[in-house]
Specification:
6-stranded mixed beta sheet; Nucleoside Triphosphate Pyrophosphohydrolase; alpha+beta; 4Fe-4S; Endonuclease III, domain 1; oxidized purine DNA binding; 8-oxo-7,8-dihydroguanine DNA N-glycosylase activity; DNA-binding; DNA damage; 10% strand; 39% helix; Endonuclease-III-like_CS2
DNA sequence: CAAACGTGGGT
DNA sequence: TACCCAAGTTT
């Protein structure tokens, strides 16, 4: 445990100071809107929390707006087609979230009468909801006292108490400290205030301590080295892989496939490829023999755990039978509606820009 | 438990 | 440019 030189009195001040600051400086985010006087719509809280996992507020905004406009509650979302959902999620990344989102909505409808359960335990049993999200929903949507810990809060707490233990080993310590400073009432506002603080003031680089309501009680600030926290374990290098995608054109159509249901970009619509993955290069074998042109500029795409140098090979497919490869013709003029992951969006742009007939 | 799992903005 | 990181969960 950390050197506990903070009295309960002092840690109690943290919540009061932060909530007062939050009353004035809270970000105005769409999922925080409260219908009437009460709490925000739990469906909105849940949807935003899933979208915000490892994803910035800026990236989430347009997706949240489109999703809530199109699917207004759990029942509507549960009833949608899987392919439509995946296409709507395209570009946001971490596609397992989209598959779990749908599973979760369907479970909420079939087993919980279309309303989210309110207890942290019950929430954690739902697909896509882990420790963080369960606590966040319980606190933010249902007013329960839950201890919320995300990467922002890890950073803020690490600095407040100048924790020398590196992450992820420090997680239990951070949870215990967050538990200690979380108020009995307004735990949800407190969590959001901590996250706002981490996002806007207690930033990774160059924290704005002069604007921080907790600066006086911050150990790292007193020590003059807030940027040194949180201490983290070094990360692994990112390998570079090579692969090929295949652009099969017939008139104004291109042949798209659906990726398998597990692994990278699972269940997403895509261009055919040569089997590249995080562990190995693609085999450079086209899906079928044809006259393949392969002189387009390579694409570099950075995934979380490897980089990919992707070559695009092009062929023209004659009218008549379809290519011997499960898939569908897609109009090249409406590729934006295909729901392609960003990697393949880049590939389609290269193919089209090449003046490819 | 460590690794898998996307993407784009910031520095 | 290169590297860091984000409202984490699942296996």
């Amino acid at each position: 445990m950390p050197n506990v030189q903070h009295s309960d009195q002092k840690t109690g001040d943290i919540a009061a100071l932060l909530l007062a600051h939050y009353a004035v400086h809270a970000r105005d985010l769409p999922w925080r809107k409260r219908p009437g006087q009460g709490w925000p719509d739990p469906y909105h809280v849940w949807l935003s929390e899933i979208m915000l996992q490892q994803t910035t507020v800026m990236a989430v905004m347009p997706y949240f707006a489109r999703f809530t406009d199109r699917w207004k509650n759990f029942a509507e979302l549960a009833a949608c087609d899987d392919a439509d959902l995946m296409a709507a999620w395209a570009g946001l990344g971490y596609y397992a979230r989209a598959r779990n989102l749908l599973k979760c909505a369907r479970t909420v409808v079939s087993e919980h009468g279309g309303e989210l359960p309110q207890s942290e335990d019950a929430l954690k049993k739902l697909p896509g909801i882990g420790p963080y999200t369960a606590a966040a929903i319980a606190a933010i949507a249902f007013g329960q006292r839950a201890v919320v810990v995300d990467a922002n809060i890890e950073r803020v707490v690490s600095r407040l108490f100048a924790l020398s233990t590196p992450l992820p080993q420090a997680k239990p310590e951070i949870s215990a400290l967050m538990d200690r400073i979380t108020p009995a009432d307004r735990a949800g506002d407190f969590a959001q205030a901590m996250m706002d603080l981490g996002a806007g003031i207690c930033s990774v680089k160059a924290p704005a301590c002069d604007r921080c309501p907790l600066a006086d009680g911050c150990q790292a600030r007193q020590d003059g080295n807030p940027e040194a926290y949180p201490v983290k374990q070094p990360k692994k290098a990112r390998p570079v892989r090579k692969g090929t995608a295949y652009w099969i054109r017939r008139g104004d159509k291109v042949w798209l496939v659906k990726r398998k249901d597990s692994g990278m970009l699972a269940a997403m619509r895509a261009l055919p490829d040569d089997g590249w993955n995080a562990k190995s290069d693609g085999n450079m074998c086209p899906p079928f023999p044809a006259k393949w042109e392969q002189r387009l500029p390579a694409i570099t795409h950075i995934f979380s755990h490897f980089s990919l140098e992707l070559q695009v090979a092009v062929t023209a497919w004659p009218h008549g039978p379809n290519p011997p490869l499960e898939g569908e013709w897609w109009d090249v003029n409406s590729l934006d509606k295909a729901g392609l992951p960003t990697l393949f969006i880049k590939a389609t742009k290269v193919a089209l820009a090449s003046g490819e007939r």
